[in-house]
User: What shape does this take?
Amino acid sequence: MNRLFLLEDDEALGRGIAMALEGPDCAVRRALDLAGARQALQAERFDLLILDLNLPDGSGLDLLRQLRAKGEEVPVILLTANDLELDEVTGLEAGADDYITKPFSLAVLRARVGARLRRGAGDASGALALGPFLFDFERMEFSREGRPVELSKTEQKLLRLLVENRGHAVRRSALVDRVWGDGADFVEENALSVTVKRLRSKLEKDPARPEYLRTVYGIGYTWAVTP
Assistant: This one.
């Protein structure tokens, strides 16, 4: 699933953009100001950022410059009411990948976002480093602290869903539906619990006190975002 971040101080516009972009393969997290944006970016990894320039506590351009100064290469699309050529040049020179002036068509924004995500996917190696783990879902290669870990296809599917939504609780019903597909109605009630237990036994140092694959009681499971 692609995870997008939207920094837009106009609440109504932000909701509209999020509704236009969200779908089965795309989730959007929003912030209204720079403080909220910095907090979100410290907690999660995103596949693309959409940043408004004029904000109540500063400019999205400053955030972009800070990200690029730290070596962050996540794609960034700037949104702004400034339509002067100099403003666009300034944004692109600061490291933006695209620049859209207000007012704009949501269809055009969707197309720009889709193109940028496809371009990024083409450059990606497929390997994801998370703490002591290295997960390569395309090659089906997994390791902890450099030691290979063998996972079944069901375990891989479950792990991928949790990792792609890390930091967020995923409901048991959603996991069953996505992992076991059309046959979900015929899956034994404890199939998900058994698969989680097997994953923990292979990935956690202490499966009885999991650090990463955690239970969210009354909801489901989450892959925890750790420092």
Observations:
- DSSP finds eight helices and 14 strands in the chain.
- The first strand starts at residue 2 and ends at 7.
